Amino acid sequence: AFRTDPVYQGSHWLCVLPKRPPGRSVAAMGAQAMLKTLLYAVNSLLQRRRYRAALAVLKGFRNGAVYGAKIRAPHALVMTLLFKSGSLREKLKAIAQATYTHSRNLAYFVFTYKGLMALQSRLQGKNFQLHSFVAACVGGWLVFGENNHINSQINMYLLSRILFGLSRLAVEKGYIPEPKQDPFPIFAAVTWGIVLWLFEYHRHTLQPSLQSSMTYLYDDSNAWHDISDFLIYNKSNSQK
To answer: pTM of the predicted model, to two decimals?
Structure first.
């Protein structure tokens, strides 16, 4: 954008001074220079190893917030539009609230967990396996200990995963023998058998979102009046 190279003119070398590009004020150029200086200072700070633990905590907070929003927003959108009644404004508010809660809680948990991990490592000089358990327990109690539908879904999601993980770990460590056949079909049969039994006879014990999904699948499919609410709509207009 600027000419700073020397120019030969006759028997003399002339240095052409930078010219301000058209439409660019001195203030704008100064602001751009300050921004570049600031970015350089920030990037230099991010490269310093002495601040790495603290910066990792902040990056964890950022990643928790972003991941929570990415996970919850589409889920809340689908579940709200399918099963919730009310005006469009109320539905959008519910989607935004669920997304915010999930994003905030996950960001707080990651921040707490990584902060406590760094603190324990600094106090004891190195990392131990117990550090992870203690830090996560504290974070789980503080962040996911409140009994609401968002935390309930997250905790139950994790419960199913850790049962799988503990089962595999038990086999790897030799605490239980490795199955000769794939146990997954038995797992699937027992899981679906129990959940449908609970739905049919002890429905109140299931989570509300699961109740809504299963009601749509198994109860609403028992009722219709004509072709409109048999194939096109779930319920006729008179039922809504």
So the answer is: 0.73
